[in-house]
Structures are given as structure tokens and as C-alpha cells.
Design a protein that fits this description.
Layout: E1 2-7, H1 11-27, E2 32-37, H2 40-48, E3 55-59, H3 67-77, E4 82-87, H4 93-98, E5 103-106, H5 111-126, E6 131-136, E7 139-144, E8 148-154, E9 157-162, E10 165-170, H6 173-182, E11 188-191, E12 194-196, E13 201-205, E14 208-211, E15 216-218, H7 224-235
Parallel strand pairs: 1-2, 1-3, 3-4, 4-5
Antiparallel strand pairs: 6-7, 8-9, 8-12, 9-10, 11-12, 13-14, 14-15
Helix pairs in contact: 2-3
Length: 241
């Protein structure tokens, strides 16, 4: 699923963009969830509270907070989202470059260009999953995959350990591991209760792993072979049994 935000203080334009996205979602068999905003400050506030998007269609000239200032604030907390500017003028080239805009669309919107940019963004996003989506207390959340150090299960609750602390989610570790593998994302299953992100492994020894934050996790005996095989696969090395 693609999480998309549309931000434009012209309600007609915002509605038109939303409809074009919905139409493209059907023709490309893409699941989308769209949030619409009418000023930059509300969008920024939403993102500051933890919401993450894959694509943001952002108007530049808005009365309450313009799109350039909004993008600068967004980039402080989210460097991954693809920002597609939608504007009536092209006089913001320097500012757009500073916030790493993905594409630039002028009004009135050319539908063929809009479609091409949507497909470009979709292709970029689907190259590799960027977020892990989960639920806790009936609320859906997302966390960037590369921010997850490891998962730790404790009965019915799984803890997502990140550099910013831990987050709780419902779900069995087996199901989480399966979901990651289906997305071509591999974590080390060092123990029945642990899934470890390879990017945070500082030192790997036969029966343990030391992580970059100093945490040491034991590799259970029945998982040492599979961990070693995955380690060699990720490193592109031959396995010596």
C-alpha cells in the first residue's frame, strides 16, 4: 500500500489530484491511502506526530505555510518521502533543490505528466520496502525498516527496538519474519524471540551477535546454521559446512 498526502490550499485542485491518484491506483492495481490537507502547517504537524507517507503532492504557494517551508520542516523528521511539487510558477528552483524534490508539476496539471510521475514514484518506492506497518491498540503505525534494530517477542506482544526507543505491536514473530521475507527483506532469527536487522550487527561470532549499540544476543544452537547461511548469502560468500 502507498500512503499518499495531498496538500494544496485550493480545494478544487486538491480534489482533482486525489481523483487522479485514485484512478491511477485502479489502473495500476495499486492500493493507496490518501490524506488531504489544505495548508502546510497541518501536514507538518501530522508528520511531527509520527505519520509517514510514501509520496507527498505539495503546493508551493499557500497562505498559511508555503510548500518550501513545509518541506524543510518535513525533511527534519523524514528524509525518505518523495515530494512532488505542484505549483503555478517555476521560480522556486533553488528552494526545491534544497529539499530534494522528486518531481515538479506546473498548473494546470497535464494528466499524462501526472501519470508518468506517479509511475516513476511508484517504481522508486517498490524497489525495496521502506516501512514496516503494524497495529497496537487498534491504531496503525509505520516505522522505517532501516530504523529497526531488532524485534523482540514477549508472549502476545512484540517490541520493535529502534534507536529512538521501543514500540509495541501485536503479532507473532513468525508472521513478522514471513512478512519481511515476502518483501525480500531479511533479518537474522537468532532466537525464538529475536529478529535482528543485519545493518546493526557490529560483530558476528558463531554463537552470538554484538550489535552497534553494544547489545549482545545469543544465537540458539538450533538456529546457528540458518543464521550462518543467511549471513553468507547477504555477504555474497560461499558457505563452508
Amino acid at each position: 500500500m502507498l500512503e499518499i498526502a495531498v496538500c494544496d490550499d485550493e480545494t478544487f485542485v486538491a480534489s482533482n489530484i486525489e481523483k487522479m491518484i485514485e484512478k491511477l491506483a485502479v489502473t495500476t492495481d495499486t492500493k493507496v491511502e490518501i490524506d488531504v490537507f489544505y495548508d502546510g502547517s497541518t501536514l507538518v504537524d501530522y508528520i511531527d506526530k509520527g505519520k509517514r507517507y510514501d509520496i507527498i503532492y505539495l503546493d508551493i504557494e499557500m497562505t498559511k505555510q508555503n510548500g518550501v517551508d513545509a518541506a524543510r520542516a518535513i525533511r527534519v523528521v523524514d528524509t525518505k518521502v518523495l515530494i512532488i511539487y505542484v505549483t503555478s510558477h517555476e521560480s522556486f528552483a533553488k528552494e526545491v533543490f534544497e529539499v530534494e524534490a522528486f518531481r515538479f508539476i506546473t498548473k494546470p496539471i497535464d494528466q499524462r505528466k501526472f501519470q508518468r510521475y506517479f509511475l516513476d514514484a511508484r517504481k522508486e518506492i517498490l524497489k525495496k520496502p521502506k516501512y514496516f506497518q503494524y497495529q497496537y491498540n487498534k491504531v496503525s503505525y509505520r516505522v522505517a525498516i532501516d530504523e529497526i534494530i531488532y524485534f523482540q517477542s514477549d508472549r502476545r506482544v512484540t517490541y520493535i527496538i529502534t534507536s529512538d526507543g521501543s514500540k509495541k505491536c501485536y503479532g507473532k514473530l513468525n508472521d513478522i519474519e514471513k512478512k519481511l521475507v515476502q518483501s525480500n527483506t531479511y533479518f537474522y532469527r537468532t532466537h525464538q524471540s529475536f529478529l535482528v536487522n543485519p545493518r546493526y550487527v557490529y560483530r558476528y561470532i558463531y554463537d552470538s551477535m554484538e550489535l552497534m549499540d553494544g547489545t549482545t544476543l545469543t544465537i540458539s544452537e538450533n538456529r546457528r546454521k540458518s543464521v550462518n547461511e543467511l549471513f553468507c548469502m547477504l555477504k555474497g560468500e560461499d558457505i563452508i559446512v
